[in-house]
Amino acid sequence: MARNKEKLVLLLDVGPSMHGVLPEVEKLCSMLVEKKLIFSKYDEVGVVAFGTEETNNDLTTEVGGYENITVLQDTKVVDGDLIDTLQKLPRGTLDGDFLDAIVVGMDMLIKKYKDIFKGKKRLCLITNAIHPIKDSLEGSKEDQVTTIAEQMTAQGMKMESIVVRGRLSQDADKRIMDENDHLLSIFSKKTRTRNVYVDSPTSLLGALKTRRVTPVTTFRGHLELSPQMKIKVWVYKKTQEEKFPTLKKYSEKATPTNQFATHQVKVDYEYKSVGDSSTTVIPPEQRIKGYRYGPQVVPISTAEWDAVKFKPEKGVKLLAFTDASKIKRHCFMKDVYLFVAELGNTRATVAVSAIARAMKETNTVAILRCVWRQGQQNVVVGVLTPNISQNDKIPDSFYFNVLPFAEDVREYQFPPFNSFPASWQPNEQQQKAADELVQMLDLAPSGKEETLLPEFTPNPILERFYRHLELKAKQPDAAVPPLDGALKKITEPDPELVSKNKSVFDALHRHFELKPNPKLKKSSRQFYREKQSGSNAHESDGQAVKSIEYQPPVKIEKIGDLTPVQDFEAMMSQRDNPEWVGKAIKEMREKILSLVIHSHEGENYHKVVECIAALRKGCIIEQEPGPYNDLMRQLREYCHGKGIESLPQLLASRDLTLISKSEAEDSDVTYEEARSYFVKMEPNS
Amino acid sequence: MDLDPEDVFKDEEDDPDNEFFQQNEGSKEYVVYLVDASPKMFSTTCPGNDLKDESHFHSTVSCIAESLKTQIINRSYDEVAICFFNTREKKNLQDLNGVFVFNVAEREQLDRPTARLIKEFDCIEESFMREIGSQNGIVPGSRENSLYNALWVAQALLRKGSIKTADKRILLFTNEDDPFGGLQDAAKKDMTRTTLQRAKDAQDLGISIELLPLSRPDSEFNVSVFYADLIGFNGQDLAQFTDSASQKLEDMKDQLRKRMFTKRVIRKIQFHIADGLSIELNTYALIRPTVPGAITWLDSVTNHPLKIERSLICEDTGALIQERPKLFQPYRNENVKFSPDEIADIKRISPGRLCLLGFKPLSCLKDYYNLRPSTFVYPSDQEVVGSTSVFIALHRSMLQRKRFAVAFYGAASHPQLVALVAQDEVTSAGAQVEPPGMHMIYLPYSDDIRDEEEARKYLNTEDDAPRADEDQIQKAAALIKRIYVKDFSTLQFANPALQRHYAVLQALALEEDDIPETIDETAPDEEGLARPAVVKTIEEFKLSVYGDNYDEESDNLGKEKAGEASRKRKAIAENAAKDYDWGKLAEKGQLNNLTVAALKNYLTVNNLPVSGKKEALISRILTHMGK
């Protein structure tokens, strides 16, 4: 354990120009510590803020200088207080000097862990680097940085520097930024430093790997081109999914007074015969594994199985090279591996480099057959693609993706699109609208940072879980929080991008029309409801974003033809804006009138009555009798004029008369008047 | 406790999507393979696999055999019957002439495929002429109509089960496009009419009839002569059908194999493109790892299956827990509790919806952005009319502009960021190789990506990382050219472990003594690699990179490093081991007083295994001393 402990110092720029992103920095750093609390509890973390009003660090007391740098927390084993510190970062008042902060951080690590070379020492700098660093007394800034960088490598420290730029930083002097970028790039050349530039709160949250994983090789051995030629390689995982943590089951059986209760639950499995109702448990030695083969179950013992099963020899062998286009991207089956030459083996590195570059030039890929370890029960066939390094210090390598076997592929046939009827084919304008969308809704505009780059995109579910965990540790009954703005950008379109391309979306709406399939029953109409809800959604973007999380997916903003009653009720119950009620009542009135007017021989009357009933109920609840009573009077006029009898009769039979004073205070109708409303009509007709 | 370790081939984790392939009984399929066995099926040939001509009958039978094998692995709940018509012998419940239902012992005529069925069907061709025989059933002058009889028998076989729970199909294999061509006008008319009526009756019962025509080299199978009416095609279908049916002959088997599959939708999702514009998509799992079926535990005495009962026991009190327990995570010296619903809430983000976020050029989709097998999406107008047209428009622009869409897929168990890559239809010789649609590729998040390259940075020297020079790259390119295959297909390898697994099962199921050898198709082509020209280019490349002393390098480097560490460890152990007089301690039986660490030092020095409990260590030491 101890050997793997990590010592980390966070160097956080809290100067005025950083204030805008500090909430994200707080979240990012707390997430880091939260995960450490669960997965690597013995790691030690220190926090240094720079750009603070005060000065408080060892170096300033020892040698002077290093002003405006505050050690918020000396390195210590992670605990809850650390999170509290990180969630309340001070807002600084001065522009900080990141190089000074790096030196302070290094000093902390050196002093505390001088003699312990084992374990990992890491600095993590978060700054916008838009302010100049102080000139050094001797030599240029560059020399100064080089000296520090050499020291850093000598001490075996790693650094991650996250530079917040673009939209997130204010206008700054380009010259100073370039200078700072150049200085930081020296670190990336001379040390194990990863420089990362982010320009949105979302990518800031993903910029730092919050979970430390010790790299383990999947395979060390030969990449066999032929029996005569083998290259020594090591294989690592390049991607591996970070899982949702497995939670333990909690038992509430223990008495509350029992302080030593573990509350753990043991899961017990018992194997019993299916047929008889006896409760005899079959002991393990009397059990045998059976495999299904059609309707039969074939029993086979582990020993027998071992004797006959497929036992491939360990090794990674080249099968062939082929054209890159032969391997479809969607055939990649699993997480990805990285093939690098054996550590420190120069000639293997050159051999890998030669093949990788030749593959790139000829646009070919290699097919390999891999058995990672002896005793593995299956072989893996996959494709090796070149990974040409852009950094001179980093050797070339390969990526390896697993390919499917013949059994894994279902060759379903789908009709080609041109076989569909002409009405399904997009016309010229529709195609143009789609083209515009594909072109304009651009996540990787040239000259700007690519948004939602997987490397910088945090997992919203895990973010939500760990934040909720932290919240619940303090408030056990806290509800699950909705996703915050920065994470929303991962799950929903960026409102900024959408509003910027409003004309594109408008064209899309104009040219494409979606209709529910009339042959389907009402119950399965979920798609269409969604469509209706959005027809005027552009004006209400803000509300839509707010409500999506917890009012499951549909937000009704218009009363449709299909389910007017439900739509009306949904609208009435939308509480985020008082205008909804008025809008709903108005729309419903119009709907009812149009239904009555367009009704052919009373076929809509049933629906009309339902709508009126709903409207009446709604108006009583909202104590708004006016619109309803007006409508009823209007209806009576209409029916009277046209000589329609059936509708008033229907209404009378359902007791849908005027709203009286007894039901709503504001009504000018007495109870008697309401009672006799339709009765009075009859003699007239 | 050993739980059901579905260990063989299983990765560390289960794939939640896999459940879709463990088919349940709810949606099974009943299929009758109706095979024309007329002499014409035997006399017409087409080029087969090894460029040898094979008869149409052979192609058909081997296709069915292959499909049965796939089925017993993947969809063993489906039931099949195999029925030949135009046969000499007859065997069917109605006792109709010219129809022979093939079956094996211990199996109903329409039933799940069994090991025996597969085995006996595999060698049916040897015994076919002897036991079943081929004979044209429709001859002028007789009133026999074998096609009519065959449809009748097939329909009767499919009487089982309700149409609501099962999909019923008749797959008709024939190379005769005009079955009543040889008859007189009146008889022909009459027979055509009754046969079509028979087919229609079957279709009215919810049975679909599908035709798998086999074309002759000289004349194409003309569907419109007779079969278009039988299957109930109209103009549009017909055009499409003939298009795909007029395949080249070499692909015929391939075609048959593909068309025997039915598509299964995993689920319907809505693709949210813009506010108010959500289209309907169906998702399909075209690529998923096939794993051997689940293990069923048996009582080794009776061979009866066992049921597994799971019970939750409170560790503090030993009481049984009935309700669904809460979950907890130890955190900050406390147990933070979650209800299962709360966990579901945390995971719920826009459920069931695929939400478009934007587009990127295809070059942004790196090779290492992959976590799981992709899912295929195809539009549907079933609920929302107009979906397909929106999809086609997007599909077309994405292909043209070489861009992919980034979207968020709110799957219930596993919401994730995905890339949607448009795939144009690819056909090869009339057969669809890649269907048109989009592939949904699951993207990793920042914490899923590792950066091991960074750790390989060359820091301790002034030099850059070693790179190959132009000559070395050229030599490597020459090597690539030598070991190049032009038409590699991802489909060309069968999974050797799976093949072996089922070969063993089949042998055991049939109680055979010998387990047939399976061929590992993934083994490298050693012969090809030993060709002098190949060896020469390899040697040249080797020389350019490694110089003359390649062998030295390959043998020593790795070992030396490992050796160093272990030698060091050994030296320490040796020093430590000197502290004790081992012989004396052993004699007095005092080894037990030493610590395990001390005992291990002795073992390390003497190159003995250091595993096991203390007693094991002591007895190992004693054995080593010869005591």
TrEMBL record, chain A:
<keyword id="KW-0547">Nucleotide-binding</keyword>
<keyword id="KW-0238">DNA-binding</keyword>
<comment type="similarity">
    <text>Belongs to the ku80 family.</text>
</comment>
<keyword id="KW-0227">DNA damage</keyword>
<feature type="domain" description="Ku">
    <location>
        <begin position="279"/>
        <end position="420"/>
    </location>
</feature>
<dbReference type="InterPro" id="IPR036465">
    <property type="entry name" value="vWFA_dom_sf"/>
</dbReference>
<keyword id="KW-0378">Hydrolase</keyword>
<dbReference type="InterPro" id="IPR024193">
    <property type="entry name" value="Ku80"/>
</dbReference>
<dbReference type="InterPro" id="IPR014893">
    <property type="entry name" value="Ku_PK_bind"/>
</dbReference>
<dbReference type="InterPro" id="IPR036494">
    <property type="entry name" value="Ku_C_sf"/>
</dbReference>
<dbReference type="Pfam" id="PF03731">
    <property type="entry name" value="Ku_N"/>
</dbReference>
<feature type="region of interest" description="Disordered">
    <location>
        <begin position="519"/>
        <end position="545"/>
    </location>
</feature>
<keyword id="KW-0234">DNA repair</keyword>
<dbReference type="Pfam" id="PF08785">
    <property type="entry name" value="Ku_PK_bind"/>
</dbReference>
<dbReference type="Pfam" id="PF02735">
    <property type="entry name" value="Ku"/>
</dbReference>
<keyword id="KW-0347">Helicase</keyword>
<keyword id="KW-0067">ATP-binding</keyword>
<keyword id="KW-0233">DNA recombination</keyword>
<comment type="function">
    <text>Single-stranded DNA-dependent ATP-dependent helicase.</text>
</comment>
<dbReference type="InterPro" id="IPR006164">
    <property type="entry name" value="DNA_bd_Ku70/Ku80"/>
</dbReference>
<keyword id="KW-0539">Nucleus</keyword>
<dbReference type="InterPro" id="IPR016194">
    <property type="entry name" value="SPOC-like_C_dom_sf"/>
</dbReference>
TrEMBL record, chain B:
<dbReference type="InterPro" id="IPR027388">
    <property type="entry name" value="Ku70_bridge/pillars_dom_sf"/>
</dbReference>
<dbReference type="Pfam" id="PF03730">
    <property type="entry name" value="Ku_C"/>
</dbReference>
<dbReference type="Pfam" id="PF02735">
    <property type="entry name" value="Ku"/>
</dbReference>
<dbReference type="Pfam" id="PF03731">
    <property type="entry name" value="Ku_N"/>
</dbReference>
<dbReference type="InterPro" id="IPR036465">
    <property type="entry name" value="vWFA_dom_sf"/>
</dbReference>
<dbReference type="Pfam" id="PF02037">
    <property type="entry name" value="SAP"/>
</dbReference>
<keyword id="KW-0539">Nucleus</keyword>
<feature type="domain" description="SAP">
    <location>
        <begin position="591"/>
        <end position="625"/>
    </location>
</feature>
<dbReference type="InterPro" id="IPR047087">
    <property type="entry name" value="KU70_core_dom"/>
</dbReference>
<feature type="compositionally biased region" description="Acidic residues">
    <location>
        <begin position="1"/>
        <end position="18"/>
    </location>
</feature>
<dbReference type="InterPro" id="IPR006164">
    <property type="entry name" value="DNA_bd_Ku70/Ku80"/>
</dbReference>
<dbReference type="InterPro" id="IPR006165">
    <property type="entry name" value="Ku70"/>
</dbReference>
<dbReference type="InterPro" id="IPR003034">
    <property type="entry name" value="SAP_dom"/>
</dbReference>
<keyword id="KW-0378">Hydrolase</keyword>
<dbReference type="InterPro" id="IPR005161">
    <property type="entry name" value="Ku_N"/>
</dbReference>
<dbReference type="InterPro" id="IPR005160">
    <property type="entry name" value="Ku_C"/>
</dbReference>
<keyword id="KW-0347">Helicase</keyword>
<keyword id="KW-0234">DNA repair</keyword>
<keyword id="KW-0227">DNA damage</keyword>
<protein>
    <recommendedName>
        <fullName>SAP domain-containing protein</fullName>
    </recommendedName>
</protein>
<keyword id="KW-0067">ATP-binding</keyword>
<dbReference type="InterPro" id="IPR036361">
    <property type="entry name" value="SAP_dom_sf"/>
</dbReference>
